[in-house]
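Data card: per-record layout.
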Amino acid sequence: MSHLTIVIVSIIFLSPLAVSVTFAAESETPTAYSLLQSYNFPVGILPKGVVAYDLDTATGKFHAYFNNSCSFSLVGSYQLNYKSTISGYISENKLKKLTGVKVKVLFLWLNIVEVIRNGDEMEFSVGITSANFAIQEFLESPQCGCGFECKDSKLESFARRNTPFVSSS
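The structure for this 169-residue chain is written out next.
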């Protein structure tokens, strides 16, 4: 069976998402991080270690996959946890209906459900409240386990504002 026949059979029998993945496999697939940038997000909202992702470009529905869950702490008392699969909907400057990402504020774990880029600020919403951070804080991806405090990290620290999620949505 020739390569062209396989592609034609794929077009006829597979879903549109599967077809886009089939064609992407033939060319160089962008990384999850470069895909984020194409929607005007900095790479640092995803930790290092994404092993695969899928995206339905018609709806913006995405999944990003890690080998395991990913947790780390950031200066400013924030702890983050990414499940092995995170999902949501992506569009220019907006991630919505996120699942699989939590932040620990004081002693509570809260789901981050939406991220909006507004100019040079990123707004992270946990539903009932949100917090804004400068985009410069997300120019590099943190590493699972140690965030930006890893010995091989290019950044010596990742200083967030010490203000917890306090402003109302």
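Known properties of this structure: The first helix runs from residue 3 to 13. Residues 1-26, 153-169 have pLDDT under 50 and may be disordered.

See the next section for split statistics.
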